[in-house]
UniProtKB/TrEMBL annotation:
PANTHER family: PTHR28630, THIOREDOXIN SUPERFAMILY PROTEIN
Identification of the protein by name: Thioredoxin-like protein AAED1, chloroplastic
Pfam families (alphabetical): AhpC-TSA_2
Amino acid sequence: MAAPVAASLLPYVSFPPPARSGATTRGLDLGSLPGRRRHHHLRLHRSLLPAGTAAASSPSASSSASDLGSSIGDALGGVEIYSSATGEPVLFRDLWDQNEGMAVVALLRHFGCPCCWELASVLRDTKERFDSAGVKLIAVGVGTPAKARILAERLPFPLEYLYADPERKAYDLLGLYFGLGRTFFNPASVKVFSRFDSLKEAVKNYTIEATPDDRTGVLQQGGMFVFKGKELLYARKDEGTGDHAPLDDVLNICCKVPVS
């Protein structure tokens, strides 16, 4: 990309593609977007987080007690998402051994978000380390399986580890941030500019066509979670666009916990 690169990328990081009929000339009908989605958030209890990891590194990791509490694994296990490889529905509980298996569950924003292409590229390049530790990588994004395949083919990213959550069910359950403020105006989003070379490399084959047809999906933020069986070992919610979990924290959890 030609200089100034930051200026050329910012519209893609911030704004969705032009909307179809019924939208404003800015490409996004703000009146149609909920200011705050009304759903039951799962607020992760501080005691579920390992000392010295997410709770120490980000305010998004700490939280209050919730109604679901330690049953988060059971609750997430019943959530249906879609395989990008086959387009078929699958339950989270079928993706890894629910007794002793280790899994890193990375919830991206949407498949048309350049910052998520960057995160997906980092996860892809780290997959060998996950494999050697016996850890299953599960990457989930907002959009349809067809949109997921665009990212997988152009980035590229292995289809068998990529899943679609078009209705954002997992995002709702985990209480991940959503809204205009988090997406466009949160100070945490400026972190992406410290990873500019990585971002530029990841979007070489980028296309905005991967953006979900449901424009509300562009207001969804992601997060990172590590499970052993149904037990939650690590949780971090992205404060803003591009505010991804420190990968070293995730790898430390994966390496320190014995895998049966």
